[in-house]
Design brief:
The protein is of the alpha+beta class. It has helices at 32-44, 55-71, 73-76, 93-105, 120-131, 147-159, 197-204, and strands spanning 5-12, 16-19, 22-26, 82-88, 137-141, 165-170, 179-185, 193-194. Helix 6 packs across helix 7 (197-204). The longest helix has 17 residues, at 55-71. The protein is globular and about 55 Å long.
Length: 207
């Protein structure tokens, strides 16, 4: 199997947004959604559909949009050669459970509009639309964050020629920190770290 390299990383911690292990944006907000809204207001600003998304979609959109903007990966390779894979533990359950509670309380507020923008794929879809990404896309469910899983999926996609680069990460809206995303390719660019479980864990912890 060919070696692959981590070219760029983004992670959201309790105290800020970290890029390649260094804090770029200070975040003092208590909750994850408040953090995401603050990042959107200061870093993106120009995608009104963001306000229609639930926490999951917001999280995936913020991570995906920022890494595409900062790396300019969509200028370097064709959108059909870029894969986009995200993982988490709960899928759309947080928003689904809210809708279920409304049903249990009575049908007056249990409208389909409560979950129009709540599927995990919505955030990915909006990133792909904005950046014209048409390569392989997956949203997978794992019991917990696995650096090994991210490492192996990226290696598999690249070694089998499914893409020239992959954007891959963990987006769990029930966690207030530890959400992360990586740009990985077969070329040693950017931070140029070998794609290993150890390096992914190290970056996620901002070490």
């Amino acid at each position: 199997m060919n070696e692959s390299y981590i070219n760029y990383s983004l992670s959201i911690a309790k105290d800020g947004l970290y890029c390649n292990g260094s804090k770029e944006v200070d975040l003092q907000q208590e909750g994850l959604i408040e953090k995401l809204d603050s990042i959107y207001d200061s870093q993106i600003k120009d995608y009104p559909k963001y306000y229609r998304m639930d926490g999951m979609a917001k999280l995936v959109f913020i991570l995906g949009d920022l890494i595409c903007a900062r790396t300019k990966i969509c200028d370097d390779i064709d959108g059909s050669d870029l894969a986009f894979v995200m993982l988490n533990a709960t899928g759309s359950f947080p928003s689904d459970s809210i809708h279920n509670n409304l049903i249990m309380d009575g049908f007056e507020r249990a409208s389909p509009s409560n979950f129009v923008y709540t599927l995990p794929n919505v955030g990915m879809g909006e990133v792909c639309i904005k950046w014209k990404i048409t390569g392989e896309g997956l949203f997978l469910i794992e019991d917990e964050f696995s650096a090994n899983c991210i490492c192996e999926i990226a290696d598999l996609f690249l070694s089998q020629g499914k893409c020239k680069a992959i954007v891959i990460g963990w987006a769990e809206p029930t966690e207030n920190e530890g959400n992360c995303i990586f740009l990985i390719s077969n070329k040693g660019k950017g931070i140029n770290l070998l794609n290993t479980e150890k390096n992914i864990l190290k970056i996620r912890k901002n070490e």
